[in-house]
Structure formats: C-alpha cells, structure tokens
Hints:
The complex is a heterodimer of chains A (314) and B (474).
Chain A: E1 2-11, E2 14-24, E3 29-33, H1 40-47, E4 55-60, E5 63-64, H2 69-74, E6 76-79, H3 91-101, H4 106-119, H5 135-147, E7 153-157, H6 165-180, E8 184-188, H7 192-198, E9 201-206, E10 209-215, H8 216-224, E11 228-233, E12 248-253, E13 257-262, H9 265-278, E14 283-288, H10 293-313
Parallel strand pairs in A: 3-8, 3-9, 6-7, 7-8
Antiparallel strand pairs in A: 1-2, 1-4, 4-5, 9-10, 11-13, 11-14, 12-13
Chain B: H1 2-20, H2 23-34, H3 36-53, H4 57-93, H5 96-100, H6 106-139, H7 146-173, H8 177-183, H9 185-204, H10 207-231, H11 234-239, H12 247-259, H13 265-277, H14 281-305, H15 307-314, H16 319-328, H17 334-357, H18 365-383, H19 388-422, H20 430-462, H21 464-472
Amino acid sequence: MIAAEHLTKRYDEYLAVADMSFSVQPGQILAFLGPNGAGKTTTVRMLSSVLRPSAGSARVAGFDVEREPEQVRARVGVLTEQQGLYGRMTADDYLDFFARLYGLERTAARTRSLPLLDQFGLAAARKQRIGTYSKGMRQKLALVRTLVHDPPVLLLDEPTSAMDPESAVVVRDVICGQARAGRTLLLCTHNLFEAEQIADRVAVVRKGRLLFEDTKAAFKRQLLGPSQFRARFARPVGDWTPDLPQGVRLVERGSAFLRFQVDEPLNSNPLLMHQMLQQSLELVAFEEMTRNLEEAYVQAVTRLNQEDEARHAG
Amino acid sequence: MLAKLSLVFVIARRELGDQARDWRILTPIAFMALVFPFLMNVAAEKLLELLRSYGVGIISDRMVPFLLMVVGFFPISISLVIALESFVGEKERGTIEALLNSPLSDGQLYLGKLLSSVTAPLLGAFLGMGVYLAACVGRGLALPPAEVVAQVFLLTLVQAVLMVTAAVVISVQATTVRSANLLTSFIVIPMALLVQGESMLLVWGDARTLWLAIFGVLVLTVLVGRVGLSHFRREELLGRELDTLHPRALLRLFARHFRGEARSPREWYLREVPSTLRGLGLPFLLVCLLALGAALAGAGLIQSTGAQAAQRALASSESGRLEALADAWPLFDFHPVATIWWQNVRAMLIAMLLGGLTFGVLGTMPVVLTLLFTGYISASVASSGIPLGSYLAGFILPHGVIEIPAVILATAMILKAGAALAAPGSGRGLGEQFVISLADYARLMLGLVIPLLLISAAIEAWVTPRVALLIFGG
C-alpha cells in the first residue's frame, strides 16, 4: 500500500508539494488529477524514493521512502513521462537488463517478460531494435519494464499517452488486472475518461496541494451537487408539478420531461414515480443523468481559478 | 559485496554494448589504436634522425617515451566524449530516470558508468601504445627503459580516470549535452597543462619526479572522483536546473553566510568570527604537520646543495645590509608595511584560488614553500656555525609569531573549503558550496587573518631588522 503523511517538497523558495496526505490500499487505483506543474511528478518521485521529502513521510509497500529507499525502489514499478528506452537494444535485451537490476536471473526474467510482451502484443517484435518501434509500442514496452519485476506497487504517469485507442484499451485492461491481482496503483493522468473508467478513487492536485481525495462518486457529488434524475413522458405534461418530497428540487421543465435534483434517491424517487403513475402520466423513463468526471473536474478547476482571480483582484 | 559489484558490471556491460554498436565511437578509437601509432613511429624516426644530426642525443633518447605518451593520450581523450554522452546524454534523453527508479545505489550507477566510459578508450590507448612499441622494435628504434614504459602506461590509466571523473562533475552541473560541451574547457585546459607538465618531466628524464607526478595525478583523481560521487545523487540529477547562473542568488547566499546571525559589526566580530574557528582544529593540525614537514625537508636540502649556498644565504645577515635595511624602513613609515602586508595577503588570495581549483591541495603551497625555504635557510645558518636560536630570534620570530599562525589559519580554512567542495552537505550544489566556502574564508580573512598580517607586517618592517641588528650588528 501507499501511505503519505504531510509529504512536502521544497526547492529553495519554491514549494513543489505541500503537506500532502493520502493513502492507497492494495487492489485500489488512485487517479492523481491536476494540471501540469501541479506536483504530481514530484510526488511520484518522492514515493519512489528518487527525491527525498523536505518534510513529512511516506511508506510504500511497507517501507519508509526516506530511510529504506532501496527496498522501496525494489518493490515499486514506475512508469515515467519519459519512457526511458535504449534505441539500440532489442526488447529482450532491454527487459533482461532491467530484470538484472531488480535482481532477477535471466531465466526468471524471460519467464516473467514473455507473457507480458505477449499480453501487450509485442512478442513478435521482441528481437527488433527498440529504435524501430512506434510510439505506442515504446509506451507498451516501458510498461512491460515497469511490471517485469512483479512489483506490489505501481506508479504510472500517463500510461496511455501516445497510444492508439485499441492499444489504450489493452493497457487499461492490464492496469485493471493488476489492481484485481491486489497491487496498489497510483495513476497520474490528464485523461479523465481513463480515470473515470479505471480508478476507484480520485485525488485532485493543484499548485502542490492536495485539494480533494475520495471516491469518484463523492467527487462528483461535492462539485456538481446531488444526483439528477429525468422523467420522460409519452405526451406533454403541461404545467403539472408533483408535490416535491423533502430534498427534491425541480431544476428543469420541458414539454414532455421534468428534471429533478434529488438528495436521497432511495427515499424520494419511489415517491415521485408513484405520483406520476397516480396522475396516469405516460412515464416512458425515469433515469439518472450521466455526469462524468471531466465535468466535475472542469467545474472544480473553474471554481478555483475564479477564486484565485478574486483573491488577486482583492 | 559481490552482488553489489555485479550490478556495476551490469550497467557497464550495457553501456559497452551500446558503444560497440556505435561506429562514431569505434572508428576514432580504432584509428588512434591502429593507424596513429604508425604515424607517430615515423615521426619518432624522423625526429631522432634530426636531433642526432645536431648531436643532441640526450633529447632524442626521450622522444620515444614522449611520443608513447602522445599515442596513449589521444584515444583516452575520447573517454571525455563518452562520459559526457553517458551521463548527460542519458539525462537529456530521459533514460536515466528509469535507472534511478531501480534499486541501484547512486554509487553503483556512478561506478558502472565510470567503468564503461574508461574501458574502450583505455583499451584503445593500450593497444595503440603496444602497436607503437612493437613498431619501434620493427624499425630498430631503441625502446625506453621498462620503468619509463610502466610509468607512461600508468599515467595514461590515471589520466583517463581523471578525465572521466571530471566529466562526471561537469555532467551533474549540466542538463543538456550542449551545456556539458560548453563546460568541457574546464577539463580540457587543465588536462592540456597537465600533459605539458608531464611531457617536460619525460624529456627531463627524472624517473623519481615522474613517479611523484603519477602519485599527484592519482591523488587528484581520487579527489575529483570523490566530488563526482558526492554530487552524483538522484536528488541532484533530477531536481536541479544548473545551466543558468543566478548572480543575485549567489550574492545573497554569500551575504547570508558571511554575516551569519549577527545584527551588528560588533556582534559579527565577537560571535561569528570565533564561530568560524570552530571545526578548523583538524585542518589546522594538518597544516601544522605539513609546515613542519616542509621545514624539515628544507633543512634536508642543505645535504644536497652544500655549504656554498648556505654562505650565500647568510650574506643577508651582514651588519651593513641590516643597517641599510633599517635605514630604508624607518620607524612608522607605512610604505614598507603596506608592501609586506599586501605581499602576504595576495599570497593567501592566490592560495585560495589555487585551493579552490584543486580541492585545497595547491592552497597549501605558500605555507609549504615558505617553510621549505625557512628550513633550508635555518639549516644553512646552523651549518655555518651561527647559533640557530639567535638567527630565529633575530630574523623570524619577532613577526613570525603572528604571521605564521595567521597564514596557517588561512591555509587550514582553504583545506577545509577543499574538503567541503569534495564532499558538500546534503542538497548543496558545487557552486553553492563554493560560495559558502568563499564566505567562510572571507569572514576569517577579514575578521582575523588580514588584521594579524597587518600587525606582523608592521613588526617585520619596523622591529625585526632592528632586533636582527641588535643580535648580529655587533
């Protein structure tokens, strides 16, 4: 697991990461969201014991990142923004090389790397020079390198960038598979669709500070308000309005639909539907409005930018 | 231990494999190893013919080992390019981060890269030197003595490692190969001077001095290697942008360290200057030992130079000369005081400059040379039958009791600064450490050494000649 407490990184006057506390349990995927320069990469570097925290502490896979850096690095797979591939080597040689650095013998390395190469569709190209690989293939190979020593913790920075949609699907499947296998994953991404699809929790980072960390549903709820439901009818309902139960607000009215914001859907929705059926309105559908992570994230960033502007103006 | 070393070889093997696939590295090494030696051979033959035609056999005999050194030096100069490519190139291409994320320690990565940068050029150099020597035999040229050949091989080895370790220091300060290339003059110029010095020693033909030179280069290599190792840290490699000079930030750093916690000049003098002396104990002791060693070595020189030099040295103690000196330096005339004072201050500033470039080593030269000379003169005096105590009391002690401790103190600070440069504190860059050391040195100089040197200069100009006259004037 990953457990960070008041993690801080300062470069002279510049505060790159400030007082960050969060945890990720085995089997979970935490998506780290935030604009460029928010402190995501610095946090990953501290968690992988590459940078030393200026204050605070973190434990990764049971080891302290500051006091036991080599143990931490041996148990973490890190995919950085830059793939770190050697163009003159073949994929086989490259993976053997890294496996040796992680203490694996050649046979063990091959036993581990061959299925991974196969899974990512690189098996046929494993004897080719990496320099001849496409961008997507390179990214996949970098991901294989990250997994070759079977680490319990994975720190992945933009794992599907530069990939075609088909490859991205393969990579997302692998990532979800790693989580199902009990690994702890931290995923830095700008791809909110990806975060929505595969993450269990989201963390929003801005200017080195952790602004939010919870489940996706809680994130949306906090930023977009309670869930919204739409009732669609076969014919126009005129100006009919139901008696709104406590915690229900009518937010939009169309000729043949009504949209409600509902604090407690489990209690309120049956009451609403009951009234509609009693009125013999021809209810076609009663559905939850889809609200995606992107919408919530944009809302959050817009709100923060407005707050910043107001502060500067003040 | 073996497991740790095996990772060093894993790194080195990968890099060597990469080099073996790059014709841009292999071609010049192959040329230097297989073609260049023959050209040097022809050059040696023609030079020998020319020199012998002028009857300068002693110089012509030394041409063969000199050209052997040249044959070795060219291939190892490629190690600089390989090292910069290996260290900075990986940084620039972003491949180093994957290595930094692995369980490798900083030292293992450093040693692996060092080994891989040195191996191919060194093999090329040794092969070239072998080819050169074999061709000498083939052409009937007299080979140098085995000791000289061994010295040249060793010198080549040490120089290659020195160049690569220096390249590492540069690499840590650079984020692109371009900026690293711009910094190579900091290696090329000192190396050129070093090779010139070694060439002189080879032509001079003094094997003992050449061994000392090899030892000196080895010490420098160890020191530069230590600097490289202490700076080659993950934190430094990823977290710093060092291409740009920030004079204001450096000035602020200097001012902060120079001023310390003091809020007034009085507080600075009473609290901060004494605090500078803390931690100077060991370097002070080392410089004292060095000074003692130099004085004894100077005294030992009398054995080889004989009594004539001693007589010449004593000429300055003739009473007529002393009277003239006392007349030329009248009491309370500030001009000779200023001259002596500036001479000493300048020597200490040059010592700091030399020390800064050589991790404190050459900063000890003023003390060593002065004490060597003093030891020699003292021994000369003693051998001439003059009581040593009278000589010391008349010529050295009046001002020396202040001047010598002041100079030793300043030298100790240079030595401490050199050690700090070789192994700076956590999170400090080379430039930052240099500025901090400079601030400490400035604090000691302004607060203590310069005033002491002024007092000793006044004594040397106004008191010493008169005391000497009193003792030796009859």
